[in-house]
Specification:
By secondary structure, the chain is α+β, with helices and mostly antiparallel strands. It contains seven helices and ten strands. It is 29% helix and 22% strand. A hairpin with an 8-residue loop joins β2 and β3.
Length: 241
Amino acid sequence: MAKSSAFPDPRLASAKGIVAVGGTLTPEILLDAYIHGIFPWFNPGEVPMWWSPDPRYVVFPDRVKVSGSMRALLRKAPWTVTLDTAFDEVIRACAGPSLGRKEEGTWISEAFIEAYHLLHEQGWAHSLEVRDDGRLIAGLYGVSLGRFFFGESMFTRVSNASKYAFVHLARLLKARGFLLIDGQVATDHLISLGAEPMPRADFLHLLEQEDWTLTHRGRWTSWMAASTPDQESGRDTRSLP
């Protein structure tokens, strides 16, 4: 069950999904936000804004869409997938240009990078990297709490590499018993991977019922890549801040 929050009830969010304005991006505040269905999203130089949109776009790991061409690519396995080996490089790449990205600029400011670097150092935030002969060509990052992976951003420098990353993430999460991947808002890319709308009330209900001691806190390098989820419980009895 979720603890009481410093944030207003996200059910009272504005029509656009804004829950609150202000505050700072400390690890404690970010974790408080995520377990209550809230995330930060604002442009560099702006006052922090906290969101809980309705509907929420989510991907169930066992429902991820894999095209025939992607299945063939996965069978060939031309690229190497790693976990938590280059978090800072991934988040900075997400802040930069990405193949096929339409929008200009980025909301991933230095303040965001510093905040999520701290979350990673504390064992809450994680990255997945795709490499071609050692060169980083795609990746994604997010926050893992309980059986939820709160996706933040992804990038690619090679066609289909970000989808390759996402499918690998979904398969790993499915093997570990994760419930869903939070995609936050709809994008064509996410929808092509199987993202579907969930009413905010339903999403918040799932969070309220979650046992947060199921969180595996720490690097995913060996834990997530283990052959079966039964090899380790993944249970972390330490309380969230």
